């Protein structure tokens, strides 16, 4: 089943693609012949486990997005698997202990998306505070100019910003907001020795002392539902939550209640607890800006991720160290 | 016709309010008794010149927004006028030579709005590049999750930004975008000695060397239609224009043509050439984000402007120097 590859006539390595990740079309168009891509979605009549059992018994490498979960039943159908490349910065869809037990390595997005995600966090924050998309709607729906005034927004410059999770993305968000004259505080597992921002060891205290919380952390058992009702009440009725981390870091049902009842001031959300479902109650709230998990979706980031995925796959197939290992 | 004022029983000075400026409701609620406000709009059956001739013959101070023009016919009806307070950073609606000739001073917004305007410029830029309001629409209109993907955006970090007019607002915009890892260049009448950004003495050259133009200058005879078809073609088909300065700095008809024909990549517009009219052709363009001249409309800026207007009026009525004079 060899295809025409880079080395004419030479068999190119096989990569199973699940999902497929959103970035895959970029990857395939940039590197059409680098690998032979196994695409189960081209056989919609075939259950996945049957596809894998029939076509992927010798497959060593898998490329996938952050949804769905990679469960052990799927892994059981892939006896030769040695590498998972996930096109995501988060790895909460992977059971790392299980993978480690099976001797399967993991490569991930590393910091490829960090700048884009930080840019989007700031974009969502400005949108919520300054009603940018509401203003766009207001103009486009108002066919005749009237004396009707658009509601006032809230000033970003000078705000007290709380970053939840000061990794690469959180740090990039903080750097951007410093340029706006904002004051930065943060919460993370441990105080960062070289960082001058105020540190709060618990997120409730951070919320009490901030006007905005920006969720930049990954999803783990520790961070799941970390932003609960109490934290939101501590943030207060003018407080704004931005989430570009993972949906389930916030207790979504409680957040919706707080938004509807005015117990927090607004939210800008790129991620949701039960993606791809987005709660319809959020659709009618004026103080909420929604984004279709698009914090990473630029031509530049997709090009970068495609290149990084290919570099990891090439390293693996040449027995070299992975370029962005999560689990080596 | 005295009203209960701060000094009980004392007659408070009279201020004519034209427009009224958007900020006036904030001002009046914060300072209800500081002045006696003359409000022609409460007499819609009375032509303005007749209102002025009947009620404003001894009026010394005028508060107004940037629209409409303050023409000499209006000034002729105000023989006692000595001060115009405009609730705007721009003064293109005032004939300064005429005012000077009549011995009328002008106070303006100074830098009260600069941070908010700069925040909005960045917000519009992120929105155009990263499709924030389009994403919000996409989510809210998509009632069932589908496999349909939202189109990719363009990365802000690292972009070449051209600032047109490096005054207070332009400088604030530049400072913010440095935090995003952008490279800043600028055009202004003269090179700023203490600024390290690349200077281009003409805007065409700036456009040739940049991916984004942000219009931060005021409207003068020199800047009117400065952004013409040639400048837009130099910016190029992926280029983005943000305008938070004044609409007429751009040749609007040409910009619309360039947007429709893909000769530039997108635009984020808070101001328009013939406000309050906004060309309807812009309403259907996916690559355009529109804002209802809302770059200054925050509670904080309105509070600041109300305070500044009152301080100028108080200074004037106590024969002290104006706090933010444009023409003293």
Automatic annotation (TrEMBL), chains A, B:
TM region(s), chain numbering: none
Domain D-isomer specific 2-hydroxyacid dehydrogenase catalytic, chain residue ranges per copy: 56-322
Stored InterPro entries: D-isomer_2-hydroxyacid_DH (IPR050223), D-isomer_2_OHA_DH_cat_dom (IPR006139), D-isomer_DH_NAD-bd (IPR006140), NAD(P)-bd_dom_sf (IPR036291)
The keyword Oxidoreductase is assigned to this record: yes
Superkingdom assignment: Eukaryota
Keywords noted in UniProt: Oxidoreductase
Annotated CDD domains: HPPR (cd12156)
Signal peptide: none
Example GO molecular function: hydroxypyruvate reductase [NAD(P)H] activity
Domain D-isomer specific 2-hydroxyacid dehydrogenase NAD-binding residue range list: 122-295
Biological process terms in GO annotation: photorespiration
Pfam families in the record: 2-Hacid_dh, 2-Hacid_dh_C
Keyword match Oxidoreductase: yes
Gene3D superfamilies: NAD(P)-binding Rossmann-like Domain
GO cellular component annotations of the record: cytosol
Family indicated by similarity: Belongs to the D-isomer specific 2-hydroxyacid dehydrogenase family.
Protein's name in the database: Glyoxylate/hydroxypyruvate reductase HPR3-like
Organism: Cucumis melo
């Amino acid at each position: 089943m060899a295809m025409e590859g880079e080395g004419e006539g030479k068999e190119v390595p096989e990569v199973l693609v699940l999902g497929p990740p959103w970035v895959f079309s970029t990857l395939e168009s940039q590197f059409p012949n680098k690998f032979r891509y196994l695409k189960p979605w081209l056989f919609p009549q075939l259950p996945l486990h049957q596809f894998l059992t029939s076509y992927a018994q010798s497959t060593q490498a898998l490329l996938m997005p952050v949804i769905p979960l990679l469960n052990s039943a799927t892994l059981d159908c892939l006896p030769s698997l040695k590498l998972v490349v996930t096109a995501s910065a988060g790895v909460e869809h992977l059971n790392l202990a299980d993978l480690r037990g099976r001797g399967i390595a993991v490569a991930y997005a590393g910091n490829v998306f960090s700048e884009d995600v930080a840019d989007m966090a700031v974009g969502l924050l400005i949108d919520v505070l300054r009603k940018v998309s509401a203003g766009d709607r207001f103009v486009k729906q108002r066919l005749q100019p009237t004396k009707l005034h658009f509601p006032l927004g809230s000033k970003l410059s000078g705000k007290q910003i709380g970053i939840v999770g000061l990794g690469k993305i959180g740090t990039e968000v903080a750097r951007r907001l410093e340029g706006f004259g904002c004051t930065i505080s943060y919460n993370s597992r441990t105080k960062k020795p070289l960082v001058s921002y105020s540190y709060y060891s618990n997120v409730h205290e951070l919320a009490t002392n901030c006007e905005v919380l920006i969720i930049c952390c990954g999803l783990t058992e520790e961070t799941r539902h970390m932003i609960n009702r109490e934290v939101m009440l501590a943030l207060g009725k003018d407080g704004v939550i931005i989430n570009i981390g993972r949906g389930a870091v916030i207790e979504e049902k409680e957040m919706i209640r707080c938004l509807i009842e005015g117990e927090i001031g607004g939210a800008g959300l790129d991620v949701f607890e039960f993606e791809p479902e987005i709660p319809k109650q959020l659709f009618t709230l004026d103080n909420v800006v929604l984004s279709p998990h698009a914090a990473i979706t630029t031509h530049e980031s997709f090009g970068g991720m495609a290149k990084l995925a290919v570099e990891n796959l090439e390293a693996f197939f040449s027995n070299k160290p992975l370029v962005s290992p999560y689990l080596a």
